[in-house]
Amino acid sequence: MNDFLFVFRNDPAVMPGMSPEALQNSMQKWMDWIGGIAAQGKLVDRGNRLANEGNVVRPSQVVTDGPYIETKESVGGFIMVRAGSLDEATEMAKGCPILFAGGNVEVRPIIRM
Amino acid sequence: MENQELIPHLFRTEYRKITAVLSKTFGLEHIEIAQDIASDTFLQASEMWGIKGVPDNPVAWLYTVARNKTLDYLRRDKLFKEKVTGQVVRSSPPGEEIDIDLSARNITDSQLQMMFAICHPSLPVESQIGLALNVLCGFGISEIASAFLTSKETINKRLYRAREKLRTEEVKMEFPAESDIESRLEAVLKTLYLLFNEGFYSAGKDITLRKDVCIEAMWLTKMLTENAGTDSPPVNALLALMCFHASRFEARTNPQGETVLYQDQDESLWDATLICRGENYLNRASVGQQLSRYHLEAAIGYWHTIKADTPEKWEHILQYYNQLLILEYSPIAALNRTYALAKARSKREAICEAEKLNLAGNHLYHSLLGELYLGIDDRKALECFNASLSLAKSRADRLLLAEKIRRIGETC
Q1: What angle do CA A98, B318, B235 make, to 5 degrees?
Q2: B357 to chain A: nearest residue by CA?
Q3: Cα–chain center distance at B227
Q4: By residue range, what is the domain housing residue A29?
């Protein structure tokens, strides 16, 4: 078994535009999906959500506001799961609700130092 | 209360108090002596009260006898007196009578400190539960053995090792430091939770005994809620959870002693007073930011006290199970979540999730799967119940499964 990081990316403009009902609905879908992974005993770290705002520090101390300045998608959160292979982890990611809201999941094996 | 009921009743309530106060007096490494004196006191009570009748104030009588026995012991055994490390004995001026402080305040403090000592993280969980049953609940060796479905010898050894461990780890009778209270309290709650479950879920046949274990666990938890230093939201949540579960105690077994499943229970047998108390503790638990597993389990317990079988009810239960699993995995929570999923959404969705659970060695997994396949594919359901039966160990489980299989066989 290995650990994998799921990185969730989405257009940061999508979330704020949602109605309370849609938000509630989306929340429930996320809980069902992560709960399903946890029910298999494969959730290593529930991770966290990231706020939309932020800074990026570039060489020569250049600071730009917002990590998504050059792209329409930004990292919105992450979790860590356990799986037998990259394929299995990828299969798990296919149920992620973000895929039905225009986002994507990046699945990356974690190399323990 | 009749004489023959009075002594066991007092034993339950007073044994732990005397033991706790004396252990504090002597130092915890002499807990056995404290227990012996407490037992002796009750022995004398049962002899004397039988002949002379019950004294006007039985509790005061017990305390006086325990105090005298202790002073006798200290007088007789000078060497012991020099060895003891307990604060009270050590700080008393030489030549003066030692005061055994049996004031209400000291009794409460000593019991709480005993709880923290017994639930010390250096002790294996099994030892903690054994000691809790023996010292805090006043259960005898044979009662503990029958609660754990094991031999008296095993329990004796376990308790012996546990007391050894208290000594070698130099566990003291004291309140944890402010900075440790949260983590130490968490350990206490975990033990009380397991203690309750031992009574509630054990396969032991003695239902009265199992109920007593639950009552004692609740009593100890209640004591934590009555003390400002330990009255935290998770403590109240745990007590709420215990109340909700215990409310179904009468309904979950039929007069033949067989298990009655939740959906088949007669809700008029549910204890409304306990449910009401549970709600009260759950309200008290709902302050602050902390959401412990006890909060989630209490919330699940609360929804189970509502009999109406609506998708809304199961949706709530499902979401609490999701949160519980995210906090901490357990096979039983995984199975219950899948059941809630079937009730809140659909059996097909639940089957899909169940297939991923990887719990093929667990008989409950197969009976859940059987339950889900019922009405969709009865032949498959039958296979699952048979698989469950081949793995089930307890008589109660086997009876339930055999009945299910028989009923499906009739319609298949």
Answers
A1: 115
A2: A40
A3: 19
A4: 2-109
Domain holding B400, by residue range, is 360-412
Q: Is A41 on the interface with B (CB under 8 A)?
A: yes
Alpha helices (H) along B226-374: 233-246, 272-285, 293-304, 311-327, 331-344, 347-354, 363-373
> Are residues A39 and B318, on separate chains, in Cβ contact within 8 Å?
no
For residue B369, being part of any structural domain is answered with: yes
Q: Best mutation site among B323, B326, B335 for testing chain A: the one with the most A CBs within 10 Å?
A: B326
Whether ipTM tops 0.85, in short, is yes
**Total tally of structural domains belonging to chain B:** 1
User: Is the separation of the CB atoms in B93 and B81 below 8 Å?
Assistant: no
Dig out the tokens for B397 from the structure: 């489980």
Q: Is residue B370 part of a domain?
A: yes
Backbone angles phi, psi at A44, to 5 degrees: -90, -40
Mutate one of A28, A32, A34 to test the B interface: name it (highest B CB count within 10 A): A32
Q: How many domains does chain A have?
A: 1
For residue B269, give the nearest of B294, B290, B251 by alpha carbon.
B251
Q: What is the pLDDT along chain A (113 residues), one digit of tens a residue?
A: 899 999 999 887 776 677 889 888 999 999 999 999 999 999 999 999 998 888 889 898 888 877 655 567 889 999 999 999 999 999 999 999 999 988 999 999 999 88
Q: What dihedral angle (degrees, nearest 10) is formed by the CA atoms of B163, B164, B165, B166?
A: 50
Does a structural domain hold residue B344?
Answer: no
In a domain, B354, yes or no: no
Looking up residue A97, the CATH number of its domain turns out to be 3.30.70.1060
- CB within 8 Å of A18: residues ≥ 6 apart: A26
